[in-house]
Write a structure and sequence with these properties.
By secondary structure, this protein is mostly beta strands. Helix content is about 10%, strand content about 40%. The protein folds into 2 domains: about 1-25; about 40-475, 7 Propeller (Methylamine Dehydrogenase, Chain H), CATH 2.130.10.10. The longest helix has 26 residues, at about 45-70. The termini are far apart. Residues about 75-95 have low confidence and may be disordered.
């Protein structure tokens, strides 16, 4: 018996040693889908090769920029050489536009694009592609400002906040610092989308590094680590809440105890302004809303939804909304001056709240509209979003399910006009009519390869799509726009 137990122990020990070798030395990772099913195995050698491709791509861009800078002033700028087919560099002949999509999920954090009309008559091969190129890992989206598109990505053992020319894909600057978060199932890289405001870009890394960068150059104005600053521990899937710039403050959600769950810093200096609550953070971003006649910050922590005062963080109302492993990942949705929609697959479904000055009352609840880590949009009295991996529409007055249809995996969606622009988990772009009558898919085409959980972004008629390996841009605005 003792020999048998010893033999079993030896086999188990050998198995553990083999797994440790595969994980720590060979860099083996198991990539999962949004419903935690096996997708594929990746290796460290693949990631190193991908990092080398990014470095080569950006080096070609720098070389081309330097070559163009040496041309005589009267000579026209030339297009990209054949060696870099992913780029189509054109000289900028118009003044830098005032950017529209300056924040996470758009200017109001509601996933709605209303700047210009979009094209809905898509060619069979898809929207016109302007460029495509490799990008570093992570799940951030894009924001825009001063004619640049900003994101954050993992590059080897550093996080890099990056700025790109949206028309060409050319990297304009990259600010990097040592940080390397990697979770076996969720994967490596930063999660939170940088935001632009008045000449500064505010970025939060996976391990809590908050930077205010000068938008024109990428140089830091101030920085701090919000986890260390607030005696908080990182989340299992890392910091994911995008900073909220509101008035003179920038608000972040480290999830610390002793009143340091949600924190405001002076957005010009980084000096602390106020701190509040004791909740464990979830994975949502705070939003600004005017509810019950009062401007406030609405946030879903790992355990509840709250409204807090803009000026000092004082709790105005709360509603218990606990999720398994604090996995509240989908945004609160501002419906009107007295109502907020919540949804979470790990908190049991969707809830409509009626907000009064000092309380929140449940109007209805349904388990047929369960957002996981994708947020819904609303249009003309209806909410459109994912019930797990299937697109659905519900009536905002009653919570009644109007339809379910369209298996897009754990994708993301935006509202543009009366249409939904969807990115699927497999990297396709899909156009769906926003109508409560039925699910009506109009068009779809492949955009990027690989698992795609990142939210798309639209600015000045340009649709930017990315995942952990590729980024690309399409012209979605109407031609006459």
């Amino acid at each position: 018996m003792r020999r048998a137990l010893l033999a079993i122990a030896v086999v188990i020990g050998a198995g553990i040693a083999t797994l440790a070798e595969l994980y720590f030395v060979q860099g083996m990772r198991v990539e999962m889908t949004g419903n935690m099913q096996y997708r594929r195995i990746t290796w460290g050698s693949e990631r190193h090769q991908h990092d080398a491709e990014i470095e080569a791509s950006r080096a070609r861009q720098r070389a081309q920029t330097e070559a163009q800078a040496m041309l005589p002033i009267e000579a026209p700028l030339v297009s990209a050489p054949a060696a870099t087919p992913e780029l189509h560099i054109q000289p900028r002949i118009k003044p830098t536009p005032v950017s529209y999509w300056t924040d996470f999920r758009g200017p109001n954090r509601d996933g709605v694009y209303s700047e210009t009309a979009i094209s809905t008559d898509w060619p069979a091969q898809g929207l016109p592609r302007l460029w495509k190129q490799p990008i570093g890992g992570g799940y951030a989206s894009f924001s825009f400002g001063e004619g640049r598109a900003y994101t954050i990505e993992q590059r080897r053992d550093k996080e890099a906040v990056t700025a790109y020319d949206p028309e060409t894909g050319r990297e304009l600057w990259a600010f990097s610092y040592p940080a390397s978060f990697d979770e076996p199932l969720g994967g490596p890289g930063p999660r939170a989308t940088p935001v632009y405001r008045d000449g500064l870009v505010y970025s939060l890394g996976a391990e809590g590094d908050l930077y205010a960068l000068i938008a024109a150059t990428g140089k830091p104005k101030w920085s701090k680590n919000i986890l260390k600053d607030n005696d908080a521990s990182n989340k299992h899937w890392a910091m994911a809440g995008s900073p909220l710039v509101l008035g003179g403050n920038v608000i972040v959600t480290p999830g610390g105890a002793n009143g340091r769950s949600i924190v405001a810093y002076d957005r010009e200096t980084g000096a602390p302004v106020w701190h509040s609550l004791n909740d464990e953070s979830g994975y949502t971003s705070p939003i600004a809303a005017k509810l019950a006649g009062r401007d406030q910050i609405v946030w879903i922590s790992g355990v509840r939804a709250v409204g807090i005062a803009v000026e000092d963080g004082k709790l105005l109302w709360d509603y218990a909304f606990p999720a398994a492993m604090d996995m509240n990942c989908s945004q609160p949705i501002f419906v009107d001056e007295t109502h907020v929609l919540l949804s979470s697959s790990d908190a049991g479904g969707a809830v409509m709240l009626e907000i009064s000055p000092d309380s929140a009352r449940q109007i209805w609840k349904t388990n047929r509209f369960k957002n996981k880590f994708n947020s819904s949009v609303i249009y003309q009295g209806y909410a459109y979003g994912f019930d797990e991996a299937i697109l659905a529409c519900i009536d905002l007055k009653t919570g009644e399910l109007k339809w379910k249809g369209g298996r897009y995996g754990y994708g993301q969606l935006l509202l543009a006009g009366d249409h939904l622009v969807i990115t699927t988990e497999e990297g396709e772009v899909v156009l769906v009519k926003a109508s409560p009558d039925a699910h009506h898919e109009i068009a779809r085409f492949p955009a990027v390869e690989g698992k795609t959980w990142n939210i798309p972004a639209i600015d000045h008629g340009l649709l930017l799509v990315r995942n952990s390996t590729e980024m690309t841009c399409f012209r979605i605005g109407r031609a006459h726009e």
